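Handout, section 4.2: multi-component inputs.
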Amino acid sequence: MIGEVKVIKILTVCGAGQGSSLILKMNVQDVVDELGLDADVDNDNISTAKNSGADLILAGEFHEDALEGFEVPVTTVSDFMDNEEIKSKIQSFLETKGE
Amino acid sequence: MISEYLTKDNIRLGFEAEDWKEAIKKSGSILEANDLIESQYIDAMIEMVKDKGAYIVITPGLAIPHARPEKGAKKNGLSLLTLKEAVKFGHSKNDPVKVVISFCAADDSTHTQMLSELAEFLKDKKNVNYIKEVDSKKELLSYFENYDRGGESN
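Output:
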């Protein structure tokens, strides 16, 4: 779809959907607030996250085959505790969107 | 309060583990000893890594093994295990792992507070580095208490 997406949907993903993804979500939310983005941040498990309608999916390092079938490519975050890394991943996403 | 979740009963420092599986087993056995999980939960934590990957190594040198609540979690809880020799979990950037913090959640929502406090604590690299090096449980417990006292304004 062409045109500006007003609210960005960011999804953080992990295997169980209630541990790593929750911690990542908290830090992503901090970065979103800092950047002043209009974004919804949510977390989910890798199995049900595939067709979530998210614009950006952030996750830890998964096996490659676990990442098949996602509607948008999953962006890997190495250090969940490093808000600078999270920020740079979100910013490159915004750039490719043409903001 | 981090000192409420991590107490003398669920901290083990300077243990030996041959590989990541043994590290998870030892870490999980602390949860079991505290009656927080059924033993099958430990296998489920290992399966998760085998199946999906080493994404539980969320920051350099630190892993947070866990499984779904229905895999045998009884209550919300944490355990902290540090290793004498760091082991590889198979993460391209964050290996090797020195600190293993396993957790269990009785359901999908009530553990949020616990994890949020843990995340806040781990965000400060100084805290993570301290845990990697500390060899006295007593010192670590007072470190947590100090953190809790001063953490409010931070």
